[in-house]
Amino acid sequence: MGFLGRIFGQTARKNYFPPPPADGPPQPEGYWTLVVDENGDRVTNRPAAATDFIARRPMEYIDGGTEPAFQKNPRLSETQNAQAMLDYEVRSHKNRAHLQKAVFLLSQTDDGVRLLQKAKELNFKLVFDSDACAEANAVGLCDYANKKIPLAEGRSAAEVALTLKHELQHMEDINKGLAYDLRDTPRNAILVGRALEGNARVSEAVAAAEAMMGSPHGPARQFRTAALFNVMWQKIPEMAREADAAMNHAAEGQWTQFAAKVLPAYFREKPTLAYYDDNYFRYIDTYVPDVAASVNGAKEGDYQSRSAHQKRVDQTRANANTLFTQDRWTPDKIAALLTIRGLPYMQDIGKKGFSLASDAAVALTEKAPALFEKLKKNIETVLPGSSKTALLDLPAAAPEKPATPQANPYARYASKLQPDEQFNIIQLPDRVDGSRLSDGMRSNENTTRLFADIMKKVGTGGTETDRINYTVGQYLHQNRGIANVRGLVGNLLEAGLIAPLGAFPEEYTFDLCKRVMLSVRENNGRAADVSPQELKLIDHWQQMKNKGLDPMWIDGANKQASWGANGGKEDVYARLLLDALKPTAADTQTAHSLHAPARKQ
């Protein structure tokens, strides 16, 4: 009986998740030393409970930040530079948090640990670069030449983790020499490309399976999650179904048999195959484009245009002569390089199973043959009568009926790692740390109770924003905090306080505004003096603005009813902070209408 069988006393494959119940709080064991909750968040503000888990510390990695880095633009105003700086810093903060969580998730899997270690040894940087990803129409890339793994922004931590595992597998496979270029025949290139992509997706399946099962070397109460599998089910459902069916192999540690079951399903992922067929067409088309117009221009144009046209034709002909001159990859060579968890697995597919030598392994998707006909014409234009065009005659995949959708067996185990985003205008702190009442514990129950008591005594009247403003002021007064307003408000933000700008005292908005503007003026726009919690607060105000709300008072009705809004004195520093938020489409439209000439009736 395998590892999971020992835990559960059975091997029914749907019992791999959720983890078994516990009699008491988890205890550190070996490398598993962090206490986390069901979402993988560290437990720091309360004692460990029986519902918690034990986790490995995240692996070390080289964080390349968010690219391109913000640079102050001397041609823009100070407000415009502040807007661009805050937008970059908020994005960068979110990206860093998602990357940290993604690395944490992969660090709970044995193969994730292995590949993250390899990335560190090879000096690969993990970066967020949405421009590079958008240019490639991808959510992640493996830039082996520059030792970088660029990732797209705006994905959940679970999505980032799965993408990162995919690109780390590319890193390992390319490091072994698995690649193609212009000289490889189309059959070679497409076969290598599909092997690389298929293997990277098998690696995703391994991560999803390990994340649900846990390590056989770890404690029974180790952290486990179905979040990666749920992302995989949405992304590559054919392979996800095969991975689910092959979980018994994974549970017994038979990872080569698991991979051998999952890989053939990649060749049924038609949308994914079509994407890479199109990529191959674009790759060749970049070097050997249609130059028929330039051929004519070189004959009939004036002297200068003839020269430019001839140069374009000559370069394209040189590129075309380079095409398809080597046939170095055989299915056996590729199979020998395909490994999962460092082990070759193609031999486990069996003689009657899927084969890289079959036409099915390179059969073109629906639109690819027409694209390849264009490539033939491009080549024929500069190399009339060339035999190279015949190499583009690859088999076309037979039409298939769409697969019947199946329900994801683990969808009911969704977590905050796959967030259903809820926007709350106000969120009260769950604890308050670091005050003079501290009893030495991370969770300061006394001060948290004080904060709650003040809220109760405020009673009715005013708005929720007013009540938070009064409570924060009382908290500062109780802790003699006017001299340390930044530190004490920082405690509240650390404890989870989120509220509109009007909820914060003017002393704090002045301090925050000063630090933001000094960053623009003196630090080349790097908000080095703004904490991660403050960036989260600024992002909250930006989200309010994006949703058409007033980041200061919520809306007109709240502003009318607010004590603070009708006090007769405007908080000029809060106004400066609002001006530093990124403009919305509505702002742009308003600015346009203000400057537009009056139309005649």
Please outline what is shown here.
The chain has helices spanning 3-8, 78-107, 110-121, 130-135, 157-175, 186-213, 227-235, 237-245, 247-251, 255-266, 270-287, 292-300, 303-322, 331-337, 368-382, 445-458, 464-478, 485-494, 506-522, 532-546, 556-561, 572-579, 585-595, and strands at residues 32-36, 53-56, 62-66, 125-128, 148-151, 339-340, 343-344.
Q: Can you describe this structure?
A:
The protein is mainly α. Among the domains are: 179-211 and 235-288 and 323-421, no CATH class; 445-595, no CATH class. It is 50% helix and 4% strand. A 3-stranded parallel sheet has the order 3-4-5. Strands 1-2 form a two-stranded antiparallel ribbon. A hairpin with a 2-residue loop joins strand 6 and strand 7 (343-344). The longest helix has 30 residues, at 78-107. The radius of gyration is 29 Å and the shape is globular. The N and C termini lie far apart (86 Å).
The radius of gyration is: 29 Å
Enumerate the strands of the largest sheet in spatial order, edge to edge or round the barrel: 3-4-5
The total beta strand count reads 7
Return the structural class. Answer: mainly alpha
H/E order of the elements?
A: HEEEHHEHEHHHHHHHHHHEEHHHHHHHHH
Low-confidence region ranges: 1-13, 434-443, 590-601
Query: What proportion strand?
Result: under 5%
Helix % is 40-55%
**Shape by Cα distribution:** globular
Keywords for this entry:
single chain, globular, 3-stranded parallel beta sheet, two-stranded antiparallel sheet, 601 residues, 23 helices, 50% helix, mainly alpha
